[in-house]
Amino acid sequence: MNQLHAADLDARRSVLREAGADRLDPRPWQGAAPSSDVDLVRYAAWRAADAEADPALLVAGLGLLDAARAELDQTEAALLFAARAAGLTFQQLAAALGLGSGQAAQQRMSRVLDRLDGGR
Fold it and tell me: Where do the domains of the chain lie?
């Protein structure tokens, strides 16, 4: 990620935090860390329900979608690795994920890891 893109993401986060996201109670697993991009996007969607929502909030939320997807990919990969380390089979993972086969679960894991690796 280049510095310009990082600065743009930080500006979008600031818009949402200043609009009230910084006053939300932290999630128990976050501790003192700032809100995640997933939380900020959800905050923007919640605020969007107000017909008078500031368009800047909507733009900021939309601009963080890719970063939020990356956070979810990291979380999914962590859960998949933990499940495999705990002895779950790919067939069990498939059932948990609503997939039809262990092979589908393997393919999903591969796609998630590819996205995290920048598509190789």
Answer: 1-63, 67-120
